[in-house]
Amino acid sequence: MGNVAERPSMEDLEESEALRRLYEWRELVDEECGDCDFYRFCLGGCPYNAITIRDGEMEIDGVDHQCEAYKMIFAEINRRANREFLESGILGGNKKTKRPGVLDIMMK
Ligand code: SF4
Question: What's the rounded Cα separation, in Å, for the pair 22 and 63?
Answer without folding.
Answer: 11
